[in-house]
Inverse folding.
């Protein structure tokens, strides 16, 4: 069965899809550094960055929907922090809601957090949907990230494709035996997740055996035979320059 | 029909047997004794079918051959190396283990990395790795698959790539756990043709008695953790009463004759 991929699988079409994964990761990091230095009052800069992000998004014709879906998956976590922050930051009290107080500083912090998070998650979603998983992993590895970190990420992506269908099979098996009767959803869901965790544990043990059977003893040598030469493309240099210049000028 | 109940005597030759097990016993931590005093020899170049009902101890036996399990009692040798932890690195270089589920075996982001994993761990240099991977993939008939990702392969392709992951470092002994599981007839036939062409010694644990009939020249019937029969495949697998006594059936091709 061919599993649905989380990242790009088709041949590269747009400029962003053709870029080396390392270049995209470095650009995203530069973007994030510039974004987190934005002050609350830098509204022209926020608007310009948002426009730039929107332009990049629109240029990815076939990936727009996928990118928005990836962005939406991060929204609940951002929203939770943005909603809670005004109640927990000390400062001038604006409203009293029973025992809870909403402060001006809290609202400002929430506004800044929402802006930074949206801009950073947006660009990460772009990198995610325009880079195949294998290239993303290889890019992180070639940039010198710790092997353990890259290894964990690689396993997570690889076995998400195995565990997701397993969860669907568990769900189908439950549905087939309940004959239309619904159990409490929470209990049912936790039972399924428990069963999935046990299966994942068994899978992890078998994978560890498969690694040991081929000589794994703690070190993971990687072949760099197919690594493309590291070079910053003109487009990437231009992108980083524009982002940094905007940050300085606006 | 007479079936030898113990391993045939070893011919005196200079080369050690590919596998020698003497009284191998394995007890799991929960107390289940999966193997009970298994004694057998495998000569280099033999293709052996390991058959038996569920829970017979087939997989447990295979896992000892690669050092994934240690015997509770008894001893074993692979290519003259005793099955002890000090020898496991060398034993794993000489034994290629193909697991039942290819998704356990294909854990890297790309086919290239999966096929290169074994050789890179077992001493092949980075300069030689391209050649190793290309040769292994060509052997299994998938020469253009190096850049593919495992999750987008069909079950048959996954099985062949899993085989390439061990062929890439040229083991003397190939060990298969249910190699035809989840394969359609065409891919199953393709796998049998491929395994028939390989020169390595092969031990195949399987419930697919037709595959065993086609592929192997010797069959070992394992049940309850002990060897119940050991002899030529076409003798052991044609013994209806023996097979039925141990929860098996004749290969499909023989069932028409016996009906």
């Amino acid at each position: 069965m061919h599993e649905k991929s989380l990242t790009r699988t088709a041949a590269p079409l747009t400029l962003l899809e053709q870029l080396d994964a390392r270049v995209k990761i470095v650009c995203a990091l530069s973007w994030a550094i510039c974004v987190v230095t934005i002050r609350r009052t830098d509204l022209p800069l926020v608007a310009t960055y948002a426009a730039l992000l929107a332009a990049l998004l629109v240029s990815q014709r076939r990936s727009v929907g996928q990118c928005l879906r990836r962005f939406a998956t991060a929204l609940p976590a951002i929203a939770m922090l943005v909603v809670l922050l005004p109640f927990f930051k000390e400062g001038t009290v604006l409203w009293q809601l029973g025992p809870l107080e909403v402060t001006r500083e809290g609202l400002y912090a929430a506004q800044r957090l929402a802006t930074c998070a949206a801009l950073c998650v947006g660009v990460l979603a772009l990198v995610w949907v325009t880079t195949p998983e294998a290239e993303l992993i290889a890019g992180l590895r070639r940039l010198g990230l710790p092997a353990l970190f890259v290894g964990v990420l690689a396993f997570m992506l690889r076995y998400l494709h195995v565990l997701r269908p397993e969860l669907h099979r568990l769900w189908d098996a439950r549905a087939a035996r309940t004959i239309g009767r619904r159990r409490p959803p929470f209990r049912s869901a936790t039972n399924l997740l428990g069963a999935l965790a046990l299966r994942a544990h068994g899978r992890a043990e078998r994978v560890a055996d498969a690694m040991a059977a081929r000589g794994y003893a703690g070190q993971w040598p990687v072949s760099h035979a197919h690594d493309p030469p590291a070079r910053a493309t003109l487009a990437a240099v231009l992108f980083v320059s524009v982002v940094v210049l905007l940050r300085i000028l606006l | 029909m007479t079936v030898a109940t113990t391993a045939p005597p070893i011919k005196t030759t200079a080369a050690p047997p590919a596998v020698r097990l003497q009284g191998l016993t394995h007890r799991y931590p929960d107390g289940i004794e999966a193997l009970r005093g298994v004694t057998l020899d495998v000569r280099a170049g033999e293709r052996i079918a390991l058959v038996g009902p569920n829970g017979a101890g087939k997989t447990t036996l295979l896992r000892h051959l690669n050092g994934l399990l240690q015997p509770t009692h008894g001893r074993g040798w692979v290519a003259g190396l005793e099955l002890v932890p000090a020898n496991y690195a060398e034993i794993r270089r000489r034994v290629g283990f193909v697991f039942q589920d290819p998704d356990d075996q294909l854990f890297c982001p790309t086919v290239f990395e999966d096929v290169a994993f074994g050789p890179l761990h077992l001493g092949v240099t980075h300069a030689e790795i391209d050649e190793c991977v290309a040769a292994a993939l060509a052997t299994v008939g998938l020469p253009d698959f190096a850049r593919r990702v495992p999750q987008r392969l069909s079950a048959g392709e996954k099985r062949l790539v899993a085989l390439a992951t061990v062929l890439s470092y040229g083991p003397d002994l190939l060990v298969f756990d249910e190699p035809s599981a989840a394969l359609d007839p065409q891919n199953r036939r393709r796998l049998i043709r491929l395994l028939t062409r390989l020169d390595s010694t092969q031990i195949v644990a399987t419930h697919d008695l037709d595959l065993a009939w086609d592929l192997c020249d010797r069959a070992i019937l394992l049940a309850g953790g002990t060897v119940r029969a050991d002899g030529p495949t076409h003798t052991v697998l044609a013994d209806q009463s023996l097979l039925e006594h141990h929860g098996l059936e004749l290969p499909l091709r023989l069932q028409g004759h016996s009906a």
Observations:
- The longest helix of chain A spans residues 147-178.
